[in-house]
Design brief:
- By secondary structure, this protein is mainly alpha-helical.
- It has one domain (about 1-170).
- Helix content is about 45%, strand content about 10%.
- It has 8 helices and 4 strands, in the order ααββααβαβααα.
- The chain has helices at about 1-15, 20-30, 75-85, 90-95, 115-120, 135, 145-155, 160-170, and strands at about 35-40, 50-55, 100-105, 130.
- α5 links the parallel β3 and β4.
- The longest helix is centred in the first third of the chain and has 15 residues, at about 1-15.
């Protein structure tokens, strides 16, 4: 049932959001010369997949978790995208093709060993990673791997269709702050 919601909602989001995606891509092209950012992330069953986002940092920025990236790497337009969470819109494609769900644990990088270990202990990799979830709407980011993995496990153990919709609504209404960036 959740996969059905993922397909329908991501398809609607991509179709209805196409003009916004196009405008953001054009502005991003002017901002960094490369509006889309692709990065290999840890997916379901710890399998790699390529996550797609709008670029918020200058090209060539080291591939590290956001909380370890320097704020000087973030462009002015990128800051706007992060604040409004619009940088996540291209991930609707990841949801549509089945790499991700709208709701699930945020996918980490393969170099986030502590997070991967904590999530593996808790069975978090048994589900598709998501764009949003309990940790995100609670303001918990990847800078606290054990706490993040605990929240992911809690979300998974209490997951229902109602919870799925609740996390989406909370995200759309601005709940949560996203990953912090070092100043």
């Amino acid at each position: 049932m959740i996969r059905f919601f993922d397909i329908v909602l991501s398809l609607v989001g991509l179709v209805v959001g196409a003009p916004v995606l196009l405008v953001l891509a054009i502005i991003g092209l002017c901002d960094t010369g490369s509006p889309v950012f692709r990065q290999v992330r840890v997916g379901r069953y710890q399998q790699p997949f390529t996550l797609i986002k709008f670029r918020t940092m200058t090209p060539g920025t080291a591939s590290v978790p956001t909380h370890l990236a320097s704020s000087s790497s973030v462009t002015r337009f990128g800051s706007f995208l992060r604040r409004t969470k619009l940088d996540e819109l291209p991930q609707l494609w990841n949801v549509l093709i089945g790499d991700m769900s709208l709701v699930g644990p945020r996918p980490g990088l393969f170099n986030q060993n502590e997070l991967t270990r904590e999530r593996a202990k808790r069975g978090v990799f048994e589900v598709r990673p998501g764009i949003t979830g309990l940790a995100q709407v609670s303001g918990i980011d990847m800078s606290t791997p054990e706490l993040l993995a605990e929240m992911d496990q809690k979300m998974i153990s209490e997951f229902t269709a109602a919870a799925y919709m609740k996390y989406i609504v909370k995200t759309l209404t601005g709940k949560g702050t996203g990953d912090r960036i070092v100043d």
